[in-house]
Amino acid sequence: MYQYDEHDQRIVEERARQFRDQVRRRLSGELTEEEFRPLRLQNGLYLQLHAYMMRIAIPYGLLSTKQLRKLGDIARRFDRGYGHFTTRQNLQLNWPRLVDVPEILDELASVQMHAIQTSGNCIRNITSDPFAGVAKDELEDPRPYCEILRQWSTFHPEFAFLPRKFKIAISGAESDRAAIAIHDIGLRLVKNEQGEIGFEYFAGGGLGRTPILGERIRAFLPKRELLAYTEAVLRVYNADGRRDNKFKARIKILVKETGVAEFTRRVEEEFARMKEDGTAIVLDDEEIARMKAYFTPPAYETLPDESLEGAKLGKDREYARWLSANVVPHRVPGYAIVQLSTKSDEVPPGDVSSDQMDAIADLADRYGFGQVVVTHRQNLVLPDVRIRDLREVHAALKALGFATPNLDRVTDIIACPGLDYCDLANARSIPIAKEIQATLDDADRVHDLGPLTINISGCINACGHHHVGNIGILGIDKQGEEFYQVTVGGSAREDAAIGKVLGRALSSEEVAPAIARLVDRFAQVREHDEETFLEAFRRLGPNPFKEALYAAGA
After folding, report:
1. pLDDT in tens, 142-151
2. Alpha helix segments (H runs only) across 32-183
3. Buried b vs exposed e over 248-259: b needs ≥16 C-beta within 10 Å?
4. Residues 66-105, buried b or exposed e (16+ Cβ, 10 A)?
5. CA torsion angle for 26, 30, 33, 39 (degrees, to 10)?
6. To 5 degrees, how large is the angle CA 91–CA 92–CA 98?
7. What is the spatial distance between Cα 92 and Cα 45, in angstroms, rounded to a whole number?
8. Residue 314 pLDDT > 80
């Protein structure tokens, strides 16, 4: 993984010192809350419903075990003993005291971490495939390009005050595990007819009040043009994006209102001008090679090319289900990718305690190469586990509460903090997630239903990505009461789609039983055991699911 040089380290240390003085002035009354607000947002500090919330950057979701232990230590010392992993592959602390935040930043800097650009109208944390570097279907590791963009965008003076926040995701595989279609810029590494690897370039994706999938504006962009072309996109957006209405300020609205052809023309015109006047940054082979060197594969053992299939057919059904749902084939023979489910009805989705962080770090050191990855579905990954160690790892994860065999299954629910924490929320998300999990928590049922995602957001800002859940749930306010709107048919994968609203909003008491009926209807109407929920919805349309959701007398 990338290692800071002296310039990187100085940046995060100086930022921490700068914010320490700003906090001192706020606490002494020299700064009002209004004056302090833009300063704290630049350091990832929000004022939520009950307390401050601090968002810590985890670039492309990759953590060393030293960093994970430090996050656990910070949560233990300065918060309530847990952290919340988010759909942006970040970590949030929900209860830090303002007076402690400068020390938290110092602690983060000691392990090459920070909270820079995790908020505000700037380029946010750049996300990627959680299987990057180890996926069997990967064309090339996208993380070096994530890091190049991270370094280019950090403190970029031209893009520090964009019309709205700006999100970038990069995938290097056939399967889209980075949800590139719902990002302001989505990039996918592809090969052209000449055998060169470059980027398929999408722009204008995003969820929130107006969910839109990104449009392809370049079928193939050479690697050397990555920074210059991205700068051209951002310049067009910075100049032409709506600043008069924050609800129409995202790049998705600009692309929609101008049309993708006109937007692309403006970008290409700006790009050509930059090349003509010599301001276009060329990403040369030397710099790419330098960055790739930070992501060289670890020293894998030469192991037999074992298959996971034999173990799935064994007598231990619990272990077999875990292998089927949570363990993925690795590109190196004898290894596997292990996913840790943070989803149960006991704790909110994405919440991990300090003690659990320490224990996960121990497992990553013992059974891997000292790295852990955060996924955009709020789960964790051990990327390099030997197949011969899987039984021991399963036993350890079961003891920790992370072996629930439900990855991408019906109880692997994404949920934002909702009204329990967020002052923007209209309704609670966490209790609804727990009720649904409890209602559907039957191991055989979860296994038999196959891939089926449920995403929950507490407001229209869509931090829970409800629009692209196979089943999406949106919290709304109806005359002071919490209600929930249900959508069906969404996807965040390579077949990306925005879900369809089925009908009236449900009361909080109606949601879990209604979702159970909807899932039962799928089980009744699927053509065969291998047909997924999304395939069935696309074959049958919304009516069978709408009937189940609003069943008479239910």
Report:
1. 999 999 999 9
2. 33-41, 65-78, 101-109, 143-153
3. bbbbbbbbbebe
4. ebbbbbbebbbebbeebbbbbbbbbbbbbbbebebbbbbb
5. -60
6. 135
7. 10
8. no
| Spatial contact of 427 and 456, defined as CB atoms under 8 Å apart | no
If we measure between CA atoms, which residue out of 182, 84, 246 comes closest to residue 467? Answer: 182
Q: Are 126 and 149 in contact (CB under 8 A)?
A: yes
Distance in angstroms (rounded) separating the CA atoms of residues 178 and 128: 5
Pairing, β 471-478 against β 454-457: parallel
Q: What is the Cα–Cα distance from 419 to 435, expressed in whole angstroms?
A: 16
In the three-class reduction of DSSP (H, G, I as helix; E, B as strand; rest coil), residue 258 is classed as helix
Token output for 122: 């700037």
Percentages of the chain per state (helix, strand, coil), in multiples of 5? 40, 20, 40
Chain centroid to Cα 158, Å, comes to 26
Looking only at the bridges linking them, the beta strands covering 371-374 and 380-386 are antiparallel
Residue 140: pLDDT over 90: yes
Label residues 309-330 b or e (16+ Cβ within 10 Å = b).
eebbeeeeeebbbbbbbbbbbb
Rg of the Cα trace of the chain?
A: 23
Alpha helices (H) along 386-532: 390-400, 430-440, 443-449, 508-525
Distance CA 57, CA 378 (A): 14
Token pair recorded at residue 548: 């189940």
Eight-class DSSP state of 450: -
H-run or E-run covering 188: strand 185-191
Collapsing DSSP to helix, strand or coil, 380 comes out as strand
Cα–Cα nearest to 489, from 479, 480, 498: 498
Terminal Cα-to-Cα distance of the chain (whole angstroms)? 53
Q: Where are the alpha helices (DSSP H) in 217-279?
A: 226-240, 251-258, 260-277
- Long-range Cβ contacts of 523-529 (<8 Å, 24+ apart): 523/448, 523/449, 529/448, 529/450
Render pLDDT for 271-295 as a digit per residue (tens, 0 to 9).
Answer: 999 999 999 999 999 999 999 999 9
Neighbours of 435 (CB within 10 A): 18
Query: Encoding tokens for residue 102?
Result: 């400068």
| Phi then psi dihedrals of residue 261, to 5 deg | -65, -45
Judge if pTM exceeds 0.90.
yes
DSSP 420: G
